[in-house]
Amino acid sequence: xxxxxxxxxxxxxxxxxxxxxxxxxxxxxxxxxxxxxxxxxxxxxxxxxxxxxxxxxxxxxxxxxxxxxxxxxxxxxxxxxxxxxxxxxxxxxxxxxxxxxxxxxxxxxxxxxxxxxxxxxxxxxx
Length: 126
Ligand SMILES: Nc1ncnc2c1ncn2[C@@H]1O[C@H](COP(=O)(O)OP(=O)(O)OP(=O)(O)O)[C@@H](O)[C@H]1O
Hints:
Largest sheet: none
Number of strands: 0
Distance between the termini: 56 Å
CATH class: Mainly Alpha
Transmembrane segments: 38-66, 96-117
Bound molecules: adenosine-5'-triphosphate
Radius of gyration: 18 Å
Cofactor: Mg(2+)
Number of domains: 1
Binding site for a divalent metal cation: 76
Low-confidence stretches: none
Family: Belongs to the bacterial diacylglycerol kinase family.
Pfam family, one: DAGK_prokar
CATH architecture: Orthogonal Bundle
Helix content: over 70%
């Protein structure tokens, strides 16, 4: 891990952003769940804006789910590297990481049900 150079270096920041974007692309290719979550976010955010729902909780919920899916993918890769064979600790690590995504997804669903769904129904029916 290199952290030298000025904190204000645009070149350093751009280099880090390119690596981060590569992580998003790798996860998009490898993880069907990530593709589903990105699709849900891309649908829900414009709908939330359209019906006048508060955008901050919706954006935060989407960011949380996608971020945890990226971390879950990173952890799976590290576990597969460190423990290609079956090991109880590898199972604990992978299951806990998967549980974090599940919990965030349930929270995001709750935000959608509380903040977006009633306004959407009002727009469509009212
Ligand atoms: N090395 C291992 N040792 C023990 N159990 C493992 C190991 N690798 C995977 N598992 C078990 O199998 C499950 C699925 O693991 P896998 O690596 O296939 O993730 P996945 O199906 O790609 O998960 P996700 O849907 O979150 O991407 C894990 O949650 C864990 O319970």
